[in-house]
């Protein structure tokens, strides 16, 4: 693949947003940077004849996963990145060095990769091409089913993690029906509550 | 090719972020970046070797990443509801 | 000689006593424990007598060890020893019933005493050298237990240990001899060895070497110079122990061992000459040291040493039956001497220093008689027992060489001197102490009466041929030891020798009697000071051997402690290392991630760069 203007631009944006993700102090900004990164990656996917994956990238990865991140950031009001004391002050340098080393080693590794000659065409990576692979029992069908199951498990896990006893308690004994609740000082107020709920 | 190098770079950047960020959520965000870099490298290989199987794998990666994020964020929420701080350095119970 | 199970029974009786008294002694109590022990020994005596009169007996357990049977042999030689050990042993047991009265360890004492008898019997009756060795070690053990009987006193324990350790050196010789003999002849049964050696066809030097090692063993047990240092200190044990073990029986085991192996010695001039030399040295050393001692038991102990030297000389000149004969006579008068000393100690409430004795003839008439007879027998006064056996030794020594006869005569003079010195300092003169002496009870007197009779009469078994009275013991023993052709001295020479030794003994006794009553002249005082220290033998051994060994032991102990400290240090090192590594356990997630990253870089790098 030749490296033209768009490729260089895409590369710059990728690296730029990547750095933004890891350096921005505001969590919301960082998440938004990540979305940008993912979108550009989706574009790269299209260029690499993986259009279906590109769409999934946009819808699921950028559109659901990072959005979920944003939800949680809002929920916890964790927008600030500076919390508490930095207990490992010199870690930054170690991390930088490590990352540089990693980059160097990996880059060296990939430059040693010799692509095989005579590659068949990918056909753009369309669903028609991927389908037979995904749903073939001798290929990826079972993996697909397992992943589906995994998603189900993750859903249940996410629910469990928010402490179901409180949910169960809340649902079986709605607050207005609680026996141990003291009678409110003004009867009128109580009536209003009951009236509201009954409705 | 160039996108392989890009994925290497992104992976490293994500690693740097995973170590550097003190908030759990931002650390997790960096990890997602790393995951994405891996997916990008797979797609590059798919193009280079002409194999569609790599793209299938990337689909799985994305699906699993979704599941992982769901659970992971649930965990973060559960932990930090109790502690009222999102600092990762506060989690020292594995110290021995 | 038939196979008979009575033979192991002889050993089993006192062994049973050991076990019973050891387990139930406290319940059996005084004086029943003592009577039980004594009667068991008497039983062994009677059984042995019966068997001996029948001509002896054998017993064996084949293949007890591979190729080595557990065999016992009662022949004339071991029979005589058996009679002495059990007979005199019985008398001393009975005497000890009185002597040990009131001691808190009464039954323990008799238990050990019986153990000793049992072990000594194994030693004597053993036909197979490993069996003899078991008895050898057993008597050493019993000796250790009995010397250190009153173990609350440090000196007793130290003496016991000293005896055991010095004996051990001898034991090494015994073991080496066994090894050599086994490799040479393939058998360790003494009777078989005798046959094989007579048959010939072996290396003379190797046999000499084996005999030398046996000699070393004998030297340890019989306290010959240079392994004699334990015997004086062994007097730390109760007097019956000194009488039985360190006078009459155990110390003669070495002589017995050599006589048993006469077939190895009689052709070997070098070995025999060495034995004569050692015996001479010991005879003089013991006599001279005895003349300087102030402790009544040590006086007698050194006299024993001297007489053991006599026995060794007898073995060296080839007078094997004479050596045994001397064991017999010596057993009687030496045990008598010890027990008389014990009676005196008992009478004076525990006093053992002769400087605080004297005049006992007035207070203890019966004991005095015992002492007088013991002195005469020990001094070699004709016609008591000690004279005849000593005279036989002198006769054989004369055959070996007139110079030897002369030296032995000199030694006999010293023997007379030390005997009379003992007598004079204890019984004669005026009492120099402050106690109220009382005669011993009957239970202690009667054994001494019997011993006294023996000291007087036992010598008549072995009269020289020139006297027209049958010599019973020589043929009796020679039958078992072996016929070694021996030219008899001319009649005249024999009579001259007899008369000379008789006269010399009387003269020495008389002169000593006068000399030791006076105040000691200066030269004697100087001599006496050196003799008291055993002519500094102990000091010499301490400097040359004991202290260096102690130093080495301290060094090794320190090194061992250091080594352990070193290991502990090693442990600390590992601990320190662990602490260092534990600092990686920060519990900090980011720290761990950093570790992961570094590892990842390294791994990938390594993978890529290969």
Automatic annotation (TrEMBL), chain A:
The chain crosses the membrane at residues 6-24, 31-48, 54-79, 91-110, 140-162. GO terms for cellular component: plasma membrane. InterPro entries: NADH_UbQ/plastoQ_OxRdtase_su6 (IPR001457), Nuo/plastoQ_OxRdtase_6_NuoJ (IPR042106). It is a multi-pass membrane protein. Residues 173-199 are annotated as: Disordered. It is found in: Cell membrane. One of its GO terms (molecular function) is NADH dehydrogenase (ubiquinone) activity. Keywords: Cell membrane, Membrane, NAD, Quinone, Transmembrane, Transmembrane helix, Ubiquinone. It comes from the Bacteria. Its EC number is 7.1.1.-. It catalyses: a quinone + NADH + 5 H(+)(in) = a quinol + NAD(+) + 4 H(+)(out). Pfam families: Oxidored_q3. It is an enzyme of class 7 (translocase). Belongs to the complex I subunit 6 family. This is NADH-quinone oxidoreductase subunit J.
From TrEMBL, chain B:
GO terms for biological process: ATP synthesis coupled electron transport. It is an enzyme of class 7 (translocase). It catalyses: a quinone + NADH + 5 H(+)(in) = a quinol + NAD(+) + 4 H(+)(out). GO terms for molecular function: NADH dehydrogenase (quinone) (non-electrogenic) activity; quinone binding. Its main location: membrane. It is a multi-pass membrane protein. It holds the Pfam family Oxidored_q2. The chain crosses the membrane at residues 27-45, 57-80. GO terms for cellular component: NADH dehydrogenase complex; plasma membrane. It is found in: Cell membrane; Membrane. It comes from the Bacteria. Keywords: Cell membrane, Membrane, NAD, Quinone, Translocase, Transmembrane, Transmembrane helix, Transport, Ubiquinone. InterPro entries: NADH_UbQ_OxRdtase_chain4L/K, NUOK/Mnh_C1-like. Its EC number is 7.1.1.-. NDH-1 is composed of 15 different subunits. Subunits NuoA, H, J, K, L, M, N constitute the membrane sector of the complex. Belongs to the complex I subunit 4L family. NDH-1 shuttles electrons from NADH, via FMN and iron-sulfur (Fe-S) centers, to quinones in the respiratory chain. The immediate electron acceptor for the enzyme in this species is believed to be a menaquinone. Couples the redox reaction to proton translocation (for every two electrons transferred, four hydrogen ions are translocated across the cytoplasmic membrane), and thus conserves the redox energy in a proton gradient. This is NADH-quinone oxidoreductase subunit K. It comes from Meiothermus ruber (strain ATCC 35948 / DSM 1279 / VKM B-1258 / 21).
TrEMBL record, chain C:
The keyword rRNA-binding does not apply. InterPro entries: NADHpl_OxRdtase_5_subgr, ND/Mrp_TM, NU5C-like, Proton_antipo_N. The keyword Nucleus does not apply. Keywords: Membrane, Transmembrane, Transmembrane helix. Residues 128-414 form the NADH:quinone oxidoreductase/Mrp antiporter transmembrane domain. It is a multi-pass membrane protein. GO terms for molecular function: NADH dehydrogenase (ubiquinone) activity; NADH dehydrogenase activity. One of its GO terms (cellular component) is endomembrane system. It comes from the Bacteria. The chain crosses the membrane at residues 6-24, 36-57, 77-97, 109-126, 132-151, 172-190, 202-220, 241-263, 269-288, 300-321, 327-348, 369-388, 403-424, 445-467, 495-516, 563-583, 589-609. Gene3D superfamilies: 1.20.5.2700. It is found in: Endomembrane system; Membrane. Residues 68-110 form the NADH-Ubiquinone oxidoreductase (complex I) chain 5 N-terminal domain. GO terms for biological process: ATP synthesis coupled electron transport; electron transport coupled proton transport. Pfam families: Proton_antipo_M (PF00361), Proton_antipo_N (PF00662). This is Proton-translocating NADH-quinone oxidoreductase chain L. It comes from Meiothermus ruber (strain ATCC 35948 / DSM 1279 / VKM B-1258 / 21). The lineage of its organism: Bacteria, Thermotogati, Deinococcota, Deinococci, Thermales.
